[in-house]
Amino acid sequence: LADIRFVPMLERQISSLLYFKGYDVRDEEEWPHICRWLAAWEARPSYAATKSDHYTHSRSLPPQLSGGCSVEDTPEREAAAARIDSLSAGNCSSPWREPGWDRSAPHA
Questions:
Q1: 46-86, pLDDT tens digit by residue?
Q2: Rounded-to-integer distance, Cα 2 and Cα 72, Å
Q3: What CA–CA distance (Å, rounded) separates 35 from 47?
Q4: Whether the predicted model's global pTM rises above the 0.85 cut
Q5: Spacing of C-alpha 69 from chain mean position
Q6: Residue 53 vs residues 62, 73, 74, 83: alpha-carbon distances, Å
């Protein structure tokens, strides 16, 4: 039950940390347990049907956190932000794929 309540917030934090700080919580070498936990969630059709994406979360969480989201000026952050920005609705042909979507059901 705790996992059900926690995974949506962690999903938003992962996106914001990647977009604004360049910090990749989905780095399997640094965070293997978290990555396995997320992979288990992503294998569940019920979660895959409700999972959101980095693009959406990087725009929705900062206003929720108020002034707590400052942008880091690093090459890692700039590269991550560029990959996430390439996922915008106007650019569905982006070659980059967000982790977790390869295991989930197709989305319309």
A1: 888 888 877 777 776 665 555 556 777 889 888 888 888 87
A2: 31
A3: 15
A4: no
A5: 15
A6: 15, 23, 22, 12
